[in-house]
Design goal:
Elements lengths: L2 H9 L5 H7 L25 H8 L14 H14 L3 E5 L2 H12 L5 E5 L4 H10 L6 E5 L4 H7 L4 E7 L11 H10 L3 E5 L4 H4 L9 E5 L13 E5 L1 H14 L5 H12 L1 H20 L4 E5 L9 H7 L6 E6 L3 H9 L5 E2 L9 E3 L11 H7 L5 E5 L5 H14 L2
Parallel strand pairs: 2-3, 2-4, 4-5, 5-6, 10-11
Antiparallel strand pairs: 1-7, 6-7, 8-9, 9-12, 11-12
Helix pairs in contact: 2-4, 2-11, 4-11, 5-10, 14-16
The structure holds pyridoxal-5'-phosphate.
Organism: Gilvimarinus japonicus
Subunit structure: Homotetramer.
Pathway: Amino-acid biosynthesis; L-methionine biosynthesis via de novo pathway; L-homocysteine from O-succinyl-L-homoserine: step 1/1
């Protein structure tokens, strides 16, 4: 790193998150490029056999092979660590690769996970079907029930995993309280911060040990690339990095470059997603064909005050129950013309989905009932279109079921 790069890095040490999102982690090459350089190379050349030996032996820092390090990926890792307020971060091929790598690197056979019941569906599959095969067991609990959290710990509990706000009902989990409980039991507290991103929530401020991300969602923000991140203290991230280097779920340099561009506008987008979701939630709340709206930005949501303290904004995802059942919910979805019928979220394009028959379709009827995934529930991940057009898009179906 040049002296000027070092001075630039020092100037960012106390910078605000908006500045970090645009600037952190960039080290310009000799070409003086303004935008971050995209290093599409699988390997790196050495000046001499002596240097090659030193690099391979770890006696000299520097690039060897892009499964280990890549300058574009490194820029993204440093930028996310700066934004989340952690010492270090490592990028992965997808959000699931981030969760898998965290678990494999830090757990062993016989260890126990306590996990929120309201986490991404594939996370549940990973824990129950695959980690279980290797002797790691998981207990799932209602994320707002602290008696249940407390009772779920065993002598073998090593890791607590949570998402807040939850998908799709926007349950808000008290991160500080759960961090304290987790640390009392000498376990690691892992927060999937995909829904808020560091623009709206900084879990380390409330005691999280590790933050995992699906960069696929809001960090990209325009639905192009798959990626994941793990952020935390260096000694833990290094363990995860060690697994990634050996197992190979590395982030591609091209995807890292796309995510760097995404981060530059993250705050602006998260504020816009939040403002539009709030407006849509309020409009739905007053609609005669809507039974209930789930959005933490509404004052009567049980998590409203906690979210207002813990988050900088309420986020872009909301759910609502229409009057009726599956038929009416499907009618509202089928009459949209602007929103995309897809399970993805975190995109400039608004998406709409029927959780009971898609994202949560694998759950048994009892599990759906316990999780509040009813047949008349619809989830909307609000994008960046004009809100008046989104209201009109939903009004078509809501009028039809009246
Ligand atoms: C999408 C998602 C994941 C998985 O991320 P991929 O990039 O699809 O592997 C994990 N957690 C949450 C909350 C998600 O929404």
């Amino acid at each position: 790193m040049s002296d000027l790069d070092e001075l630039r890095k020092q100037a960012l040490a106390d910078a605000a998150i908006d500045t970090l999102a645009v600037r952190a982690g960039q080290a310009r090459s000799a070409e003086g490029e303004h935008s971050e350089a995209l290093y599409l190379t699988s390997s790196y050349v050495f000046d001499s056999a002596e240097q090659a030996a030193a690099r391979f032996g770890g006696d000299e820092p520097g690039n060897v092979y892009s499964r280990y390090t890549n300058p574009t990926v490194r820029t993204l890792e440093e930028r996310i660590a700066a934004m989340e307020g952690t010492e270090s971060a490592v990028a992965t091929a997808s959000g699931m690769a981030a969760i898998l790598s965290t678990c494999v690197a830090l757990l062993k056979s016989g260890d126990h996970i306590v996990c929120s019941r309201s986490v991404f569906g594939t996370t549940t599959v990973l824990f129950t079907k695959y980690l279980a095969r290797f002797g790691v067991t998981t207990t799932f609990v209602d994320p707002v029930d602290f008696v249940a959290w407390e009772q779920a710990f065993t002598a073998d509990t090593r890791l607590v995993f949570v998402e807040t706000p939850s998908n799709p009902l926007c349950d808000v989990v008290d991160l500080q309280r759960l961090a304290d409980l987790t640390h009392k039991h000498n376990a690691l507290f892992v927060v999937d911060n995909c829904f808020c991103t560091p623009a709206l929530q900084l879990p380390v401020k409330f005691g999280a040990d590790l933050i995992v991300h699906s960069a696929t969602k809001y960090i990209d923000g325009q639905g192009r690339c798959l990626g994941g991140l793990v952020a935390g203290p260096k000694h833990l991230v290094d363990e995860v990095l060690g697994f990634i280097r050996s197992a190979g779920p590395t982030m591609s340099a091209f995807n890292a470059w796309v995510f760097l561009k995404g981060l530059e506008t993250l705050r602006l987008r998260m504020d816009a997603h939040s403002a539009s979701a709030q407006a849509l939630a309020e409009w739905l709340n007053d609609h005669p064909q809507v039974e209930k709206v789930y959005y933490a930005g509404l004052p009567d949501h049980p998590g409203h005050e906690l979210a207002a303290r813990q988050q900088r904004g309420f986020g872009g995802v909301l759910s609502f129950c229409v009057k009726g059942g599956r038929e009416q919910a499907w009618q509202v979805i089928n009459k949209t013309r602007i929103m995309s019928l897809t399970a993805n979220l975190g995109d400039a394009k608004t998406t709409i989905v029927h959780p009971a028959t898609t994202t949560h379709g694998r759950l048994s009827d009892e599990q759906k009932m316990a999780s509040g995934i009813s047949e008349n529930l619809i989830r909307v991940a609000v994008g960046l279109e004009d809100v008046a057009d989104l209201k009109a898009d939903l009004a078509r179906g809501l009028t039809a079921i009246a």
